[in-house]
Amino acid sequence: MADRRIGVGIVGYGLAGRVFHATLIRHVPAMKVVAVVTRDDARRANAKSDHPEARLHATPEALFADDGVDVVVIATPHDTHLPLTLAATAAGKHVICDKVMCLDADEGEQMCAAAEAAGVLLSVFQNRRWDADYLTVQDVLARGLVGEPFVIESCVTGYRLTPGYKLPSGDLPRAWRTYAEFGGGPFRDWGAHLLDQAVQLAGDTPLRVHADFQYRRDWDVETAGTALLTYAGPDGRIGDGLRYVVEVGNISAIARPRWYIRGSEGAYLQYGRDAQEAALHRGEVGPRPMDPENAPRLVRDVSGTMQDVPFEGKSGNYLAYYENVAEAIRGGAALAVTGRSVLPSIRIIDAAMRSASTGSVVMPAAARA
What is the DSSP letter of 129? Predict the structure, then answer.
């Protein structure tokens, strides 16, 4: 494979497949989209226009049998990730699975075991490990700029209600993300990113998870959800451990801060999301800093008084994810996002789902082990 470009087959050509994956792949010289599967006629036309030389297959199975496909991108509804990953790895293909990786940790274990048995790579598209805001927070914490962190709040909120928000299911067209059977709901959708970031920043073993979901439509997925992760403090004590709060949902007409961190020596505040998604819609790829209007604020104790302290934020770069995958396939680098590195966040999602449904505090599986 070193003497040719890595052939990529994309299963699903909606927002994820076309705007995120295909756009990034086009900017990696070592990779090329060679095959696409989508059932929608308009999306098939888009795929043909975007990739004239690519083969349009009728089924995922046909794509998995394509000798020119080295790695399969699975950009389909969440409930299909397990069977498609198992089939692709059985065919000897490397797999990039869109988030959320799977519906529960048991599925994730099956996916990882299948890739390992087949001797192929399994990665999950946790692109928001390369968000500018997340990388800046990571830097702030690593440098101790707020001292010991007491509480980290990570929120992605919006407002998509209407005056008659309690609508029956049949009143409006519904996307698959609004159905529980397909793994829908904002907590899985955004929680896949926010809890993956929590694992990177705070660790994969919170002692307990307490979650609460609100349902403001007559649907079987939540409209908003909050989870509190409690980490152990020194000597394993709970009372002085880190609290990590994740909130998602569509009930906030005035958005909450994207990040709010309180610590022993100061605080950090930042509004607004990473600018790369909007840039990808325009076909723009590459390192990008936070928009100036979303610049963070850092307050620290300076000579006994709390003062705003200027500092430089980090730039985000989703392209780094695919560049790493290409290097890993060719044996030149370790895979940055492995399936097993994502499993701790899936276990926390599982715990949050159980907590929200029972009203109880739940100990995640990793913490019980």
Answer: G
